[in-house]
Design a protein that fits this description.
Elements: H1 5-12, H2 16-23, H3 31-43, E1 62-70, H4 80-96, E2 98-106, H5 111-116, E3 123-127, E4 146-149, E5 159-163, H6 165-180, E6 185-189, H7 194-209, E7 219-222, H8 226-238, E8 246-249, H9 252-264, E9 274-276, E10 293-295, H10 298-314, E11 322-325, E12 328-330
């Protein structure tokens, strides 16, 4: 039997059940009644968002592991670069209905034993920024599907997702040469990893392409952290090192530390010394002046790693691929 709007309002006083009946075309509620109920609800300021359908329960397809390899910790640390990389991985896992665990693996401990503890995972994304080729030896017997992030070696039979470091350093050097009309120096990381070696190759390629002699670029070796680079740069300046008019830095933390030291010794940025970084971490916009840098789409890299790993899990056909993420110049005020 149909009920009237007046009866619904009187008995239930626009309870959620009454409004829900009207919203969802429940049997026994006529069109006229439904319209009257909804109009009364609107008049009384009813919060319709309370009646949103509950989300369907999330069904996980499996568990992925983001495995962070810690060698010396000089490069892989709790920095905005790796935080943004992690955000991309987390986002892609949610969208693809995989749960995610984040684990560290330490070179100083039994790596094989640490890997055995991860046998529950369906697949692993390995952050291999600090790894040498020989560090992959324990992984060769590991049967879980694996995608390597931020490192590439020709003899590795894994999918690899990494930055186009060579291209980024070429962009940085060409940009600063064009802006400063001078040969740039190079603020190199005192910790050598594959990424920094590739950036060095790109830097020197641009130097040669601009008709300059690579041997004439001043190279200063700095710790790849804000405080470390500051201390190293300040020590060099105190010892009498004369800065050149512009520099390309291996990463933003090196650039920021160098800027701090240079300003402390009375040099103006960019009037006296121009600097371009690499990575585009959030710190760049808080420096004075804001740091010109090379943008790396870090979250996108993380998402690509997840998508490639899922393809590996869901397809019988597999041939290892190397995927490089392109970079771009972000112009600010430091050059």
């Amino acid at each position: 039997m149909s009920i009237t709007a007046k009866e619904l309002s009187r008995q239930l006083r626009l309870s959620e059940a009454a409004v829900s009946m009207a919203l969802n075309n429940k049997p026994g509620v006529s069109t006229a009644t439904r319209q009257k109920v909804l109009e009364a609800a609107r008049t009384q300021g009813y919060d319709f968002t309370r009646l949103q359908e509950p989300a369907e329960p999330r069904i996980e397809k499996g568990t992925l592991c983001f495995l962070i390899y810690k060698k010396h910790g000089a490069v892989v640390a709790d920095t905005p670069f790796f935080n943004q990389l992690t955000e991309g991985i987390q986002s892609a896992c949610r969208q693809s209905h995989y749960s995610l665990n984040i684990n560290y693996i330490y070179e100083s401990e039994d790596v094989a034993r640490q890997l055995d503890a991860l046998s529950y995972c369906n697949g692993i994304i390995l952050l291999a920024t600090e790894m040498k080729y020989e560090d992959f030896r324990p992984f060769r017997q590991f049967q879980t599907p694996l995608v390597v992030l931020d490192t590439y070696y020709e003899n590795l039979q894994y999918d690899c997702i990494l930055i186009n470091n060579f291209q980024g350093a070429c962009l940085a050097a060409n940009y600063i040469i064009r802006k400063r009309k001078a040969q740039p120096g190079y603020l190199r990381s005192s910790y050598t990893i594959g990424n920094f070696n590739e950036r060095a190759d790109g830097f020197y390629k641009a130097i040669r392409d601009n008709g300059m002699s690579a041997s004439k670029s001043q190279v200063l070796w700095l710790t790849p952290s804000l405080d470390g680079a500051y201390e190293d740069m300040l020590g060099l300046l105190t010892a009498g090192e004369e800065p050149v008019s512009c520099y390309v830095a291996d990463n933003d933390l090196i650039a920021a530390g160098a800027v701090k030291a240079l300003k402390e010794r009375g040099y103006r940025i960019p009037e006296d010394v121009g600097i371009i970084g690499f990575d585009d971490i959030p710190l760049c916009t808080f420096l004075e002046p804001p740091l010109t840098t090379i943008r790396v789409p870090k979250q996108y890299m993380g998402k690509m790693a997840v998508h490639r790993l899922i393809q590996r899990l869901e397809s019988r056909d597999h041939s290892p691929v190397k995927l490089e993420v392109g970079t771009s110049v972000v112009e600010r005020k430091s050059v």
